[in-house]
Specification:
The complex is a heterodimer of chains A (194) and B (172).
Chain A: H1 9-22, H2 25-36, H3 46-56, H4 58-71, H5 77-107, H6 109-119, H7 125-129, H8 134-147, E1 151-154, E2 157-160, H9 165-179, H10 186-190
Antiparallel strand pairs in A: 1-2
Chain B: H1 2-27, H2 33-58, H3 62-91, H4 94-104, E1 110-111, H5 112-118, H6 121-134, E2 138-141, E3 144-147, H7 149-164
Antiparallel strand pairs in B: 2-3
Helix pairs in contact in B: 1-2, 1-3, 2-3
Classes of the chains: A mainly alpha (194), B mainly alpha (172).
Chain lengths: 194, 172
């Protein structure tokens, strides 16, 4: 690694700056859709809005990267392509992080418990919990999954439609089993015993 | 091949944090899990990266400093994504469990009632409550459950974020 004036510091700093700035694009795009255009405001379609925000973000990023690619004359060609991959990879990971952050604000029970507890401190755990009708929680989730196109409803039954969440669910389940190697743990808690 | 090498180093540092996290969880699962996750994946590695970057800049090794900025940013991106994935890993995600249950029941699918029967009433809320007390986000004070200081900050962040989007609070 060089430490002299001929090192293409400016070119590397350029792509680092574009990448760091792109981290805010999912939020900005989502804000534009939600706050200014007032799209995707219904409860069952809000996750679509957050997803679309992440999908729109690469547009300005790719334009900036195209300018950078053409102007970074002193960098080796292969490093320029790796820098592009790096920038897009960082963007995708932060877009994924943003989507989860939005999803937590929308669907996480723990966040709702925090909000309800801050409004009205409760004397017992039962009082905190009684604010939540589990039937309603399941109904909302089914509506969201149908709105996202993951499930479809036919004659009162729910069927897999797109199935893109199936491998995601399997990965999450496998990670859980790896990090919490306790067969009596989550599954015993989550599922009713026969 | 600076960027390619930096991607490799950033990935290796993330994997090292993941191995440490798994080892700690298996040895003795900590109570404040989110705090430990933040320390293992973010605070310690970022301090290490910052230290190296500052040292290399002091020694006028620009190339090395830039290398570690690329690595650090890649590590940060991977770690942020993992930390946000952790809550469904920790307690299960009802939506993902619904998808798995419906998938395993194909081609007949499941009725709404059959989906509801999958979940234990207690698990949906009680476990979340237990996680919040474990993470010290809610606590008993003067005979009532209320938010801790950290719990209040987290609640405010989400509340202001929803107002920024001009959306009502999520239903959970």
């Amino acid at each position: 690694m060089k430490g002299n004036n001929l090192y293409p510091t400016r070119e590397y700093c350029g792509v680092l700056f574009i990448t760091a700035a792109s981290i805010f694009l999912p939020l900005l795009c989502h804000l534009f859709l939600c706050r200014f255009l007032r799209l995707f405001t219904r409860p069952e379609e809000r996750q679509k809005g957050a997803l679309l925000g992440g999908i729109l973000g690469p547009v300005p990023l790719l334009i900036a990267l195209a300018f950078w690619f053409n102007s970074a004359q002193t960098l080796p060609e292969i490093d320029k392509w790796f820098a592009l991959m790096f920038s897009l990879g960082v963007y995708l990971l932060f877009a994924y992080t943003y989507f989860h952050f939005f999803n937590m604000s929308e669907t996480a029970q723990r966040i709702r418990i925090l909000r309800e507890t801050s409004r009205a401190p409760s004397e017992t755990q039962a009082e905190v919990e009684k604010a939540y009708a589990s039937d309603r929680m399941i109904t909302i989730r089914l509506q969201r999954l149908v709105a996202l196109g993951e499930l479809r409803e036919k004659q009162g039954r729910y069927l897999i439609e797109r199935g893109t969440l199936v491998p995601v669910a399997r990965v999450v389940s496998a990670l859980h089993d790896f990090i919490f190697p306790d067969p009596e743990g989550l599954r015993a808690d989550l599922y009713r015993q026969p | 091949m600076l960027v390619a090498s930096a991607l490799l180093v950033g990935t290796l540092s993330f994997l090292a944090a993941f191995v440490l996290h798994s080892a700690i969880w298996r040895w003795k699962r900590p109570e404040k899990q989110i705090l430990w996750l933040t320390a293992v994946f973010l605070i310690l590695p970022i301090l290490l990266y910052l230290g190296i970057i500052i040292l290399t800049l002091v020694e006028r090794q620009q190339g090395t400093a830039i290398f570690f900025v690329f690595s650090g940013l890649w590590h940060l991106a991977l770690s942020s994504a993992y930390i946000m994935t952790y809550p469904p890993i920790q307690t299960g995600c009802p939506s993902l469990n619904i998808v798995l249950a419906v998938n395993s029941s194909m081609p007949e699918g499941l009725s709404g009632e059959e989906v509801r029967r999958i979940f234990s009433e207690q698990a949906l809320v009680s476990k979340r409550f237990k996680d919040l007390t474990g993470d010290k986000l809610i606590r008993m004070k003067e005979g009532a459950w209320g938010l801790s200081f950290t719990g209040k900050i987290i609640s405010k962040i989400f509340s202001r974020y929803r107002r920024l989007l001009k959306l009502p609070p999520g239903e959970g």
